[in-house]
Structure formats: structure tokens, C-alpha cells
Design goal:
The complex is a heterodimer. Chain A is α/β, with parallel strands linked by helices. Helices cover 41% and strands 19% of the residues of chain A. Chain A is built from 14 helices and ten strands. In chain A, the strands form two sheets. Chain A has a six-stranded mixed beta sheet, with helices on both faces. A four-stranded antiparallel beta sheet of chain A has the order 2-1-4-5, covered by helices on one side. In chain A, helix 7 crosses helix 8, helix 7 packs parallel to helix 10 and helix 8 packs across helix 10. Chain A starts with a helix and ends in a 5-residue tail after the last helix. By secondary structure, chain B is of the alpha+beta class. Chain B folds into five domains: 72 residues, Alpha-Beta Plaits, CATH 3.30.70; 81 residues; 117 residues, no CATH class; 199 residues, MetI-like (MetI-like fold), CATH 1.10.3720.10; 68 residues, no CATH class. In chain B, 46% of the residues lie in helices and 25% in strands. Chain B is extended. Chain B starts with a helix and ends with a helix. In chain B, 29% of the residues are buried. Classes of the chains: A alpha/beta, B alpha+beta. The interface between A and B is medium-sized, with 26 and 22 residues.
Chain lengths: 308, 717
């Protein structure tokens, strides 16, 4: 749980040495050598449950090709990867490599693009092919929530924003809603900051608070998986730190898939990392290994900043 | 080296790199600038001139009349040139109107007094039977009182005077009927009479003929088939018109018809004439001169039997009496003289609680010191004439009327408001629905492009075309659910729905000429019979879906305007939907909302300000259109407001309300400015109407801007 005191600690030089994760947060060197990455990622890997990788994967992406134009050209080609429960999985890669597209396939947000289609393969979440005929995208999205790149709270009150997902499910009971709103806001480490102004407009919050509100809104409907599409790209480093801390806290309850452009961020928050390049999955492994000892030449070149 | 800076300065001053260019170029630039400036300012100036003219001419009218300009119906004022006189009398209200409308009237020695009229108040009981004419008298004196008839009694007694002894000749069937209704009337002796009637069978050869009106009228009831190439007017008795007989035919003519055909120049030449004789039996009796009480049905038969007998009707109208459909007693009042006549002439007039009272009216007596011009609405002018008819004080030198020169513009304002309400209800429901479909649901592709193109074209269609379209679709063929469908040949289709029609009340049957038929007849037969009988509508117990159009009414006008404004509304709604960030839809969907849920909760609320602005702009456009309502809804003259004088009750009254034509602001302005004779009296009305209209439209636009800002402040992203 991120509290104001932990944030203070994050920026207290004394604690920096003791908390490598925090040090990573404020480090703004564009490229880091594998050696320093090693130090940074060690604790977060250790934090994940050792058995996590051995349990049955929540998301199985099986040989998937995806096209935005009715199969004429494939934006994604033959992607296969499994995502383990209660872990943070990061997708990295240069712009246009298809990582966001893959993310949006996972809760069928690509359905909004009429000409899009999975031209090959299948995606299974909790063992169910999500493109099967009897799968409702609505029910799927209740289980697979999403946080967007640009924080997008509705122009309503903070309370109404968090309660939105429950209300459209038809829950009207006031006490139930109150309870869920508080729980979600606490879960998103926002409760203490907004508890006195729940009825004021969400647009009055700062950028970082708005993004955490969006996360609270997502966890309010109790999904199994949370997809995050570059959640910190519009935030300053301090707000980024808070959101990252939040992601690490949420790992205990949710399976998180995060798309990011910042390799530092991937290394700081994720347990496993997938590197995409030009619509193909180049390498997928323990974050630790990707950043210290990548198997592929291209991965190494990308993370060391030689291209991309 | 030390001289270098100086040298540089010298160069700088002599060769200024930013030196002004040639003066010619500067002049050209100045001219360019002033052309643009003039173009801009000319807009401003023309706006000022237009507004200035309207305000200069319109403001005095509003100043003079104040609020009454908005709350009064348009009136026709009569200008009376009156000689100087003494002792004119008029009610205080009328006096106030006259003085108010004629500020410069040379009124002197005005004194107030009271004049009283005797009135009688009485309770009218259920079961009353009353003569039709008297009922109208009561209705005219009691404005809230309108009743349905329970039944019209042709057997009710009618008083009449037979001025001379007369002989009547009736057939035995007619006698039976008389005896059934009124056995005592045929008291005298009956003499059987046989009468020979002469007929002529004549042959008419085919060909072209010139016939006169008398021949035409005589031939009209016969079976002769002919084609009239021109028709007669009723007032031209002896004109000759060409007629074509397509085939040689034989027709039978009565003696009178035959005589009429031969009487004048230009009759038809008959090639073969065979006289024929038929014998008819009559019963003859005589009635001495005197007063009688008869059922009106009997009177009709007698009149038919002896066209030469002189009847003078004493009381009740010849249409007979009606039994009133009263559930409980109602209190009514009449001027005492009229009341006494009603009671005297209607034996079945059931009343109670009769009381006399005086109606006191404040009156004013005044003098006019010199010849004057009095501008007055018709009722005031009539009152002035009526009250001074006895004294002869009023000496009218000249008198002329000017339509729309007085009163206000209440009717047009209300009409326009109603049209706008109907139009916007229809246009917003359809427009928002289709904008949502086009923007949120429809696949981007050829269909969408075609729809957009169609909409673009629709927006560019001249409004008069919409007017004609509305005339064709809504006025003439739109479907209507009705118990009494039209029997016109123009009705495309009549679909009987269910046998649940409620019988029209008697007054409707008579006023609207409804043909009454049995429910087992075929619709087409009933229609044929109705049109053969000259009835515009028919009733046979079925409720019909009849494609007979809605007629010229506000519903048709509202729908026509709605179609005209739809492209504007749809485009604007689409734009406001597009302005809602995609992120709201995505966020909502990602939280498990269905498509419609996300539109309803995360898109529409934020598109609302835009839709609101669009609809208010739509209102201003719709309110100002003349062409679409010319054929579909608007009338120049209408004395009743839409909710006045409705005949039906409940939902029927609502439908009747919608099926009325209305006055409308733009059409009213057009009428006043261009369709009536212009005079100094009508001109102020014209400018006043324009100013009010302009203010209404501008305040609407203002409201829309204000609302938009307010809502936009509340909801923003």
C-alpha cells in the first residue's frame, strides 16, 4: 500500500540505499547497463511467489496472427506466449511493434475496429477461447479490465467514476457502492488523498491521481486480469513512482499485463518481459534474464539503446 | 582598427537594411487593406440599416400597445368618419377602447352613468326538448354552454300559420305516415283523385349541340348521357353552352321537362317523340286557414303536396326540435325578452329556479366637439352603432375597414410556437436516433457515405420543395385512424381495423354531412353511396386506417418542418457525438458496459450541450420558414386560438387540436406585408410583427448560448 509516508520515504536520500526499487524509480538515465539492472530487478523478482510460474497460465496466446484490414496484412504474426497468474508481465518494444495491439486483443477492445480480425491462432483466458461464438465481450471485459495510456476519468465526481462499473452492472444499493468505492480507492492508494472530496469532479485531480482513479475504477469491478497500456506515459516521474508502486502492490490480487516504452519501468515492475519487434515476439523470459542476459541479439541491442 | 566601428555605423545609417520600400507598393498595400476593411464594414452597416429600420418603425408600435400587442389576436379595424355630435353613448369598456385607440379624439363632456338590462337566470333540466334555433340563441348568450344532441325529433311540434284555405293531395303512403305521427290533422273529408301524368319518350341523336341552362337543368335528372364542354354558372340563366352527345339515346321526360327543353332557343332537337300516359291515385283533403301545431315531418309532406300553400312558420325552426344530452341541470341566463319567447314557443322546455336580475353596465355619454375619425375594432364599432341607433346621435360620414390594422399577434405567436414544438419533437427524436446510429453503430463504408451525401443534398433542397412534399405526403395521403373516413375518390386506401367506432353525435352528422351506413356493407359500396349522396364522410361502425391525409393542419406543418430541419439536426448531433473523446467509450466498454450502456452513460450526457445548441438553432430556422407551412399548416385568417372551440373530448380533443390549421409568424408577416391592401393603418402592424419576431428569434439564440456555456462549465473534459 502506498501511503504518503512511503512516498516521503521514496524521496528520502537515506532510504534510497536500502530500497533499490525506489532508487530505480527516480533514476532517469535513458539506458542502463545490464549490471545495474541486475541490482534493481533482483528484489522485485524475489517478491513474486516462486510457485507463480509453475501454476496454470491465466492467459494463453497460441500462435496468434492479427490483422487490422480483414487479413490482408498481419500486424501481429504467430505470437505465442503464456501469462502466469498474479504476476506482472511487461510488453516492450519500439513503436508500431504490435505490443498495444496484442494487449487490446486480450479484452477484445479491437472489436471496435470493424475490419480487425484474428487471422490465425487463438487466445485463451482462464482456459476459454475468447473469440468463441458464445463468449460475450461484455462478460470478458468484466474479468479483464483495462487502464489506458491517457488517463480518462469521466467528467463526473470521483465517487461516480469508481462506482460506474458497478452501476452499469445494475448495483444500486448505496451501502454496497460506498463499500466498494472505499475498497477500490484504498486498493489504488488514493483513499487518503480524496476521501474528503468524493463528490467533487474527478477532473480536479492531478494527472497521477486521475490515472490512479482510473485504476481504482478498473479494480472496482473485481477483474481477474488488468491490462495497462502505457499507464505512465503522460505522467511526471513522481506520479509515475506512485503508479509503479501501486502496480507492485496490485500484483498480490491481480494478474497484470503492462505495455511500456520505458525499459526502466519494465525492469522495475515486471516479473516477466516480452520483447516485440515488427509484429513478432522476439523474446519472452524472466525480466531478470531479458535485461541481464538476453538470448537474442536484437533484444540486447534494443535494451542497450542501440536502436528503437 | 579604432576607426572601424565608426565606419560600420556610417554604413548602417546610409544603407538601412530595413528601409521603407517604394511608396507605390505602400499605396497598393493600403488600397488592399481598405478594400478588405470596406467589405467587412459594409456588412456591419447593412446590418445596422436593417435593424435600424425595423426598430425605428416597429418600436413605436410596441411602445403604444405594450403587452397587448402580444396578448391580442389580430383584428380588423374600421375607420369611421363621424360628424361632430352630442350625446353619444357607449359602454365604459367600449369608451376606453375608443379613447385608447384614438388618442386625438375630440371628446368633451364625458359623463358616466349606469344602464341596466333585464336578464333571467334559470336551471335547464335533463330531458329538455327545444327548437334548434332557440338552442343556438341560448348558446350564443352562454359562451361556456355547448351540448350534444341526444336525438333530433322530427316529430316535435312546429307551430305555423296557414294564411288561406288550401287543398292537399297526398298519396296513400304519405297519408299513412301523417296518420302515424299526427292522426288528428287530417280531420276533413278525404276524396280519392286519379291524375293522369303525361310523359314523352324522346330520341336524341348523337352530335354536338348548343343547349341553354333551362334545358340543362331539365335534362340533369334524366338518364341522358352527355358531355358538357363548359359548365353554367348559377347566375347565368340564358347562356348557351356547347354539349356533346356521344351516342344516340332514348330518354323519358316528364311534361315539365319536355316543355323546358323546347321552351327556349338552343334546346335539343328530338328526332322521335312518343307521348306516354301514366295514372296516379291521390287522396285529396282541405285545410282551413288558421294556426296549427304540427310535427315538422308532417309539415314537410304537406309542403311537398301543395307547393302553392302559404305557410308562415311561427316558432321552432323547420329543422325540428332536439332533445338535449344533459346529465344534470345547468344554470343558464338569457336576456329576459329572449327567455320569454323561448318558454312560450317550446312546450317541452324543462326549467326550474327562474329568477330575474338586472345586468348593470357602466356607460359613458360623451360629445365630439368636431368631425373626427374613430378607429375601432368591429365589436366596438358595432356596439357604438347599436347603442346610438335609437337616438340618432351618430352621424357617420364615411366608413372603411382595414384588415390586420389592429389588435396584436397572439394567434401567429401561438401557432408558430405549436409548429416549433411539434417539429422539434419529431426532428429531435428521429435526428438524435439516426445520429447515434450513424456515428456509433453504422459500419464506415459505402452506405454511410451514401447517407451523408443524401443528407447533404437534403439540406440543400429549397424549402418550397419541402412545402410541396408536405402537401403531397402529410396533407393528402398520410394515414389517419378515424371512425368517419373520407368518402373522397382521392383516398388511396382505407383499411377497416375493428368494429369499435363510436357513433358520431347528431350535430356532427348534420354539420359535416356524414353518410350513415350499416356495418355489413362493403367499404367500396358505402364509399360509392356516400359520394353519390354528396357526403364527404361516412360512418359504418368500423374504425378505419384511412390514407386520406391529415388536411392542412399543424401536425402536417410540424412534420414538414421536421423533415426540412432533420439534416441540420443530424449533422450537428453527429458532430457533438464525435466531439466526445473516444476514451470515454473505451473506458466504459472496458468496464464491462454494453454498447448502449456506454452510449447512454458515457457519450450522450457529454454530447448534450452540442445537441442543445443545434436544436435551438434548428428552432430559429424552423420558426422563420414560410414556404414549408404555406401549403401544409398556415392560414392568414383565423379568429379562434387552437384550443378554442374544440368539439370533442379527451383524446379526441387532442387529435382535433392537432388537426387544426394555425396562423404563424412568418406567414402573418407575409400576409400583412404583401397580400392585403396597404395603408397607413396596416404598416405599423407589419413592422411591429417583424420586430417582435426578430426579438423572439434573437432571444432564443441568446438562451442557447447561455445554456451552452452553463452546461459546458458543468461538464467538461
Amino acid at each position: 500500500m502506498v501511503t504518503p509516508s512511503t512516498i516521503d520515504k521514496l524521496f528520502n536520500m537515506d532510504t534510497l540505499v536500502k530500497e533499490p526499487a525506489a532508487k530505480a524509480t527516480i533514476s532517469d538515465t535513458p539506458s542502463t547497463t545490464p549490471k545495474t539492472m541486475d541490482q534493481h530487478t533482483q528484489p522485485s523478482s524475489a517478491a513474486s511467489t516462486p510457485s507463480a510460474t509453475e501454476t496454470k497460465p491465466v492467459i494463453e496466446i497460441d500462435n496468434v496472427s492479427f490483422s487490422y484490414d480483414n487479413g490482408k496484412t498481419n500486424t501481429l504474426r504467430d505470437i505465442s506466449l503464456d501469462i502466469a497468474p498474479k504476476q506482472v508481465t511487461a510488453f516492450i518494444g519500439p513503436s508500431g511493434c504490435g505490443k498495444s495491439t496484442l494487449l487490446r486483443c486480450l479484452n477484445r477492445m479491437n472489436d471496435l475496429v470493424e475490419t480487425s480480425m484474428i487471422s490465425h491462432g487463438e487466445i485463451r483466458i482462464m482456459g476459454q477461447d475468447i473469440h468463441a461464438k458464445d463468449v460475450s465481450a461484455i462478460e470478458l471485459r468484466k474479468q479483464v479490465g483495462m487502464v489506458f495510456q491517457k488517463y480518462n476519468p469521466f467528467p463526473k465526481s470521483i465517487y461516480d467514476n469508481v462506482a460506474y462499473g458497478l452501476r452499469i452492472q445494475g448495483i444500486k444499493n448505496k451501502s454496497k457502492l460506498d463499500e466498494a468505492v472505499e475498497k477500490s480507492l484504498r486498493g489504488a492508494a488514493l483513499w487518503d488523498e480524496v476521501k474528503d472530496r468524493l463528490k467533487t469532479s474527478a477532473l480536479g485531480l492531478s494527472g497521477g491521481q486521475q490515472q490512479r482513479l482510473c485504476i481504482a475504477r478498473t479494480i472496482a469491478v473485481q477483474p481477474k486480469v488488468i491490462l495497462m497500456d502505457e499507464p505512465c506515459s503522460a505522467l511526471d516521474p513522481i506520479a509515475t513512482a506512485k503508479v509503479e508502486q501501486l502496480i507492485m502492490d496490485l500484483r498480490q490480487d491481480f494478474t497484470i499485463v503492462i505495455v511500456t516504452h520505458s525499459m526502466q519501468q519494465a525492469s522495475r515492475v515486471s516479473d516477466r518481459t516480452a520483447f516485440f519487434y515488427l509484429g513478432e515476439l522476439i523474446e519472452y523470459d524472466e525480466t531478470n534474464k531479458i535485461f541481464t542476459n538476453p538470448a537474442e541479439q536484437r533484444t540486447e541491442a534494443y535494451i542497450s539503446g542501440r536502436f528503437g | 582598427m579604432s576607426s572601424l566601428p565608426d565606419k560600420k555605423d556610417a554604413i548602417a545609417t546610409s544603407l538601412n537594411p530595413f528601409k521603407q520600400g517604394k511608396s507605390r507598393l505602400r499605396t497598393i498595400e493600403r488600397i488592399q487593406r481598405s478594400v478588405l476593411l470596406i467589405a467587412t464594414y459594409s456588412i456591419l452597416i447593412s446590418a445596422l440599416v436593417v435593424f435600424g429600420t425595423i426598430i425605428k418603425n416597429g418600436a413605436p408600435v410596441l411602445w403604444d400597445k405594450g403587452f397587448s400587442f402580444l396578448t391580442e389576436k389580430p383584428q380588423t379595424l374600421t375607420v369611421l368618419d363621424v360628424a361632430a355630435t352630442e350625446g353619444l353613448e357607449i359602454s365604459a369598456d367600449g369608451f376606453e377602447r375608443i379613447v385608447g385607440d384614438n388618442k386625438k379624439l375630440p371628446v368633451e363632456n364625458s359623463e358616466e352613468f349606469e344602464k341596466s338590462y333585464p336578464h333571467t337566470r334559470f336551471d335547464l333540466q335533463p330531458g329538455t326538448i327545444i327548437g334548434d334555433g332557440y338552442l343556438q340563441l341560448i348558446e350564443n348568450n352562454n359562451h361556456d354552454f355547448r351540448v350534444g344532441f341526444l336525438s333530433r325529433s322530427r316529430d316535435a311540434q312546429v307551430g305555423f300559420n296557414l294564411s288561406a284555405d288550401s287543398e292537399f293531395r297526398v298519396t296513400s303512403e304519405q297519408l299513412e305516415e301523417i296518420k302515424k305521427v299526427d292522426p288528428e290533422i287530417v280531420a276533413g273529408e278525404l276524396t280519392p283523385v286519379s291524375e293522369e301524368t303525361n310523359y314523352f319518350r324522346v330520341r336524341v341523336e348523337k352530335g354536338d349541340y348548343e343547349i341553354n341552362k333551362a334545358t340543362y337543368d331539365a335534362l340533369n335528372p334524366t338518364t341522358l348521357i352527355y358531355i358538357m364542354l363548359q359548365s353554367f354558372n348559377d347566375d347565368e340563366r340564358n347562356q348557351i353552352r356547347s354539349t356533346k352527345i356521344p351516342n344516340s339515346q332514348v330518354v323519358t321526360l316528364s311534361q315539365a321537362q319536355y316543355a323546358a327543353c323546347l321552351a327556349e332557343e338552343g334546346g335539343l332537337p328530338f328526332s322521335k317523340v312518343e307521348p306516354q300516359v301514366s295514372v296516379q291515385d291521390f287522396l285529396q283533403f282541405s285545410m282551413p286557414a288558421g294556426q296549427y301545431e304540427l310535427a315538422s315531418k308532417v309539415l314537410d309532406i304537406l309542403k311537398l303536396a301543395n307547393p302553392n300553400a302559404s305557410f308562415v312558420s311561427l316558432h321552432n325552426t323547420e329543422r325540428g326540435a332536439v332533445e338535449l344530452d344533459l346529465k344534470e341541470a345547468v344554470t343558464l341566463s338569457l336576456p329576459t325578452a329572449a327567455f320569454e319567447q323561448v318558454v312560450r314557443d317550446n312546450p317541452d322546455f324543462k326549467i326550474s329556479n327562474v329568477s330575474n336580475y338586472e345586468v348593470k353596465k357602466p356607460f359613458v355619454r360623451f360629445d365630439l366637439s368636431k368631425d373626427a375619425q374613430i378607429l375601432a375594432p368591429n365589436e366596438v364599432q358595432l356596439e357604438l352603432k347599436g347603442e346610438n341607433a335609437g337616438s340618432g346621435a351618430l352621424n357617420i360620414l364615411d366608413e372603411h375597414s382595414h384588415s390586420y390594422s389592429g389588435g396584436g399577434i397572439l394567434g401567429p405567436i401561438i401557432g408558430t410556437a405549436l409548429l416549433v414544438i411539434i417539429c422539434m419533437t419529431v426532428a429531435l427524436i428521429t435526428g438524435i436516433a439516426s445520429a447515434i446510429y450513424l456515428n456509433e453503430y453504422a459500419r464506415k463504408g459505402r452506405f454511410l457515405k451514401t447517407v451523408r451525401l443524401a443528407m447533404l443534398n437534403l439540406a440543400g433542397v429549397p424549402s418550397i420543395v419541402f412545402g410541396l412534399f408536405g402537401l403531397g405526403l402529410f396533407v393528402l395521403i398520410a394515414p389517419q385512424i378515424t371512425d368517419t373516413p373520407s368518402s373522397s375518390n382521392n383516398v388511396v386506401l382505407r383499411v377497416p381495423l375493428a368494429k369499435i367506432a363510436s357513433e358520431p353525435n347528431l350535430r356532427d352528422i348534420e354539420n359535416n354531412s356524414i353518410f350513415m351506413a350499416e356495418s355489413h356493407h362493403k367499404t367500396s359500396d358505402v364509399v360509392a353511396a356516400a359520394s353519390a349522396n354528396g357526403k364527404a364522410r361516412f360512418y359504418n361502425g368500423w374504425t378505419y386506417l384511412s390514407f386520406q391525409g391529415w388536411g392542412t393542419c399543424m401536425l402536417a406543418g410540424g412534420f414538414t418542418l421536421a423533415i426540412m430541419v432533420l439534416p441540420v439536426i443530424i449533422t450537428a448531433c453527429e458532430e457533438s457525438l464525435q466531439a466526445v473523446p473516444m476514451g470515454f467509450r473505451e473506458a466504459s466498454l472496458a468496464l464491462g458496459a454494453s454498447k448502449w450502456q456506454s452510449i447512454r452513460t458515457a457519450v450522450l450526457p457529454y454530447a448534450f450541450p452540442g445537441i442543445l445548441t443545434a436544436s435551438v438553432l434548428g428552432i430559429t430556422r424552423v420558426a422563420g420558414e414560410t414556404a414549408p407551412i404555406m401549403f401544409t399548416a398556415a392560414v392568414a385568417e383565423r379568429s379562434l386560438l387552437p384550443w378554442e372551440g374544440l368539439q370533442s373530448h379527451g383524446f379526441g380533443a387532442f387529435l382535433e387540436f392537432l388537426q387544426q390549421s394555425v396562423q404563424a409568424m412568418p406567414y402573418h408577416i407575409y400576409t400583412v406585408a404583401g397580400r392585403i391592401p396597404q395603408s397607413q393603418y396596416t404598416e405599423p402592424m407589419q413592422y411591429g410583427s417583424v420586430l417582435v419576431f426578430l426579438m423572439l428569434v434573437m432571444s432564443l439564440a441568446g438562451v442557447s448560448v447561455y445554456l451552452r456555456i452553463r452546461i459546458r462549465n458543468k461538464i467538461k473534459w
